[in-house]
Amino acid sequence: MADKQQQTPERQFSVQRxxxxxxxxxxxxxxxxxxxxxxxxxxxxxxxxxNDLDKDHYEVVLEVTVTVKVGxxxxxxxxxQQAGIFNIAGFPEQELGPMLGAYCPxxxxxxxxxxxxxLVVKGSFPQLVLQHVNFDMLFAQHQQQRAQQEAxxxxxxxxxxxxx
Length: 164
Fold this sequence. Notes:
Elements: H1 2-7, E1 12-26, E2 40-54, E3 57-70, E4 73-89, H2 93-122, H3 135-152
Antiparallel strand pairs: 1-4, 2-3, 3-4
Protein name: Protein-export protein SecB
Subunit structure: Homotetramer, a dimer of dimers. One homotetramer interacts with 1 SecA dimer.
Subcellular location: Cytoplasm
């Protein structure tokens, strides 16, 4: 029994640090925009970057960009790079991708949502609370798109060479 425990490394997951890597708020049409009707339309763009720091430590950066327009004028643009350092050890390779690409961003998202909300209010706009994002679904869609692209390219890139 002791041999089996030594062969299978213990799974470890911990959040070492959560921090803002970069933040930006722009309101290019203020103050004119404050004088008209407020009928906003917003777009949300998300991206994730993963950086290997050292053995079992990863930096995950969740990039959130929100653009709000009223008519054809931009009311504001908020860009937040919410980052975290995660210790992840003992997980098989097939589980590491979803952890870094879905689970870690889902942990970072509430922090990014708070930053976006605070910046929007400080910009003198009505509070904007971003709705929950299903990172598991987004990760699965991304993997499916990547698999389709590789199939179209004739599988020129081996799976283990693909970077996160």
